[in-house]
Amino acid sequence: MKLNEIFKRESLFVPIIAIVLGLVLGALVMYVGGYDPILAYHSMITQIFGSTFDIGETIRTIVPLVMCGLAVAISFRAGMFNIGVDGQIIMGSLGALIVGTQIDLPPFLHGLVAILVGALFGGLWGALVGYLKASKGISEVVTSIMLNFIALYFSQLVINQFMLQEGTQRSQMIKDSASIQMSWLSNFAGGARIHWGFIIAILAVIFYQVYLNKTKWGYELRAVGHNPHAANYAGMNVSRVIVRTMFISGVFGGLVGAFDVLGVFKYVAISSTTSGLGFDGIAVSLLGGNTAIGVLLSGMLIGALTYGSQGMSFGAGVPGEIIRMVIGFIIFFVAAPGIVRLLFRPFHKKTKKES
Amino acid sequence: MNKADIALELKGITKRFPGIVANDSISFQLKRGEIHALLGENGAGKSTLMNIVFGLYQPEEGEIHINGVKAMIDSPNKAIELGIGMVHQHFKLVEPFTVTENIILGSEPKRGMRIDIKGASKKVKELSEQYGFDIDPMATIDSISVGMQQRVEIIKTLYRGADILIFDEPTAVLTPQEIIELLEIMKRLVAEGKSIILITHKLKEIMEIADTCTIIRRGKVIESVTVKDTNPQELAEKMVGKAVNFKTEKQPAHPTEVLLEAKDLVVVDRNGKHVLNHISFSLHAGEIVGIAGVDGNGQTELIESLTGMQSVNSGDILLKGKSIVNHTPRNISESGVSHIPQDRHKHGLVLDFSVSENTILQTYHHPEITKRGFINVNARDDMATRLVKEFDIRTPGIDTRVGSMSGGNQQKIIIAREIDKDPQVMIAAQPTRGLDVGAIEFVHQQLIAQRDQGKAVLLVSFELEEILNVADRILVLFDGQIVGETTPETTNEQELGLMMAGKYERGGSSETK
Lengths: 355, 513
Prior knowledge:
The complex is a heterodimer. Chain A is mainly α. Helix content of chain A is 78%, strand content 0%. Chain A has a domain at 62-302. Chain A starts with a helix and ends with a helix. Chain B is α/β, with parallel strands linked by helices. In chain B, strand 11 (212-217) and strand 12 form a beta hairpin. The model of chain B is unreliable at 507-513 (pLDDT under 50).
């Protein structure tokens, strides 16, 4: 039990120090660049918490990051590295867009169906990666990143062929009945684009926690992640666990895509690149240590920093890219905990002796 | 005694890890030209001590003297400089490289810009001849046997000028014949003036080869004894701290009906080799059948075929008359076959799981544990608590990570879990590998208890002593075939050793009785 406590303390120690170091290094970069770091951080905080609208928009930024973090984290826990969340987002958007534009359903139900179809599209896209790994032994790193491009161009093809808004580079708008904006909450938050995704993200975090730690399938998932040989010995169908896990991972990604279409933009723009949210998800899962609460907290942090960076450029003239650097520093220190320990060796030794 | 006769002396070495004193004021002397055995159970602190001598750990207290001079050993390089060489239990060799390349790795002799391979291989050859290693300096590591690979490790230390050689459990991976050869080599090394520390818990080897034996228990030196004045019984008792029963007590077997039957099993590997070549045998209720053989003669394939972890090309496996060939591991496990796997870290356990999570590894899907897809944590913990008590598993708690426990207790978890399934057939592969005397006794008693309850036990082991002690009937596996069948009463180690080497046949190609 005692050992366990040290471990827990340790697992909190590194990220917290990493965050502090990241912010300090970011301040240093601003200072060297001739900016006022205190003013910059002050404007960032004002931007995040300044008004109910800002808080709402911060939450809107956080939601997809948490979802993407969960998508990456669940695959990590099963011993896989899913860098195809971007592709799953695109497929989720496509699924939601098709339902949103092509089908007529009563309000609420329309949104619900659109979300479910988006989740299914993303899930199947993820399951495909799992299937290729389980049955053919192809590395999920390779297939998932390749499928990102396939998803991007496939989605463009479908939009161009069937759903293009004449004379523009984007799809038609979804029907109003398919909108998942929560107008009462939006009004409350000064018009910020808050949608069902807020609720679903909270449910997803709870689902992740319960699924992994309380269910039979979660037990299998963790066994496969720690030791697939032992899982096979124990009679688990390792292939099935891999496909199932990648499906869930894909559902998380697909939901992000569906939220964007149904709750924020109402259309899909034809873009030459993917959103990159999936890669932010890697950062979130890494910082959060692949636990439910960790992903939630790190998603909140990175989301808040991202949204707050806009304030920095208004308030202190600091380019928003600095915040990407800060996030980069934080991830760097989390990924290389040895550096944090090295810097804090005297302190670290003390805590060890106490225990 | 003259001070210069002491090659290595440890004085009051103490090393603490959080929550445990691994070495508690350990002192002993290694005389020049002797073989000094270090005997102790798993976790007694032998490896920690040797890692201190080899510079991997720093002691908190105490001194190391080499040739009478106080030494500070703060890295393996420093240890090598001082003439200390270590032959690790797990070899540290680059497989596709040649013997010579491996030996010079890290201290390559240069000739201008190029590595002087020719000169190096000449030197290797000289060393090989001097000590009778009989090794080809240009062979690649993956083409030579495990015994030969170990010799490469030994030459590696000699090449770097070692005078003090530390052998960490050197015979654990060797065949009986290879062990004899290794002991010969060790004798020749000391004859040439080298000094050897032999870490082991095999008493037979100590009696045969060591001059002095220092016994360590729970981090403390119990005693240093002259080997010729002692006997294995005495050594074992000092190591364990209580009386030990060597000869496993058991009543004669009363085999009844056939429970498991293998018929003409064939497994062909990727290269088209018949790794199992028409194997047939039967296993009766109430008997322990031992499969003797040198590692790599088809044991792994046989176990994995019987447990469904490997597919069979042809032949049949019958459990109580019903075919289970090529069924899934789950299916076979549920039909009443328990399996203690050969490699407990790879297959038997999820090291990052807790004790309680590991106890349900085979049965987590049963309705007692899982209801409507949710694991009943209380039922799981109750089961773990019960097994910990029943099988005397030493752990701080059922939430302890299994990877942090000793090998003996890890194995107890597996055995507890597999016995608790109440199987009809128990397949035990190398169930005592790496365990100490006390734990081995426990495992053997459990297997015999299973037999006495009318279960069929298949014991696969590379240890002849174990087979002779525990099995009621012995099948010898060589090159994927059963080359002999005998009983412990009518054979001995020499005869079995010859059969295992494929040089002797007896009893014919095991007909089903």
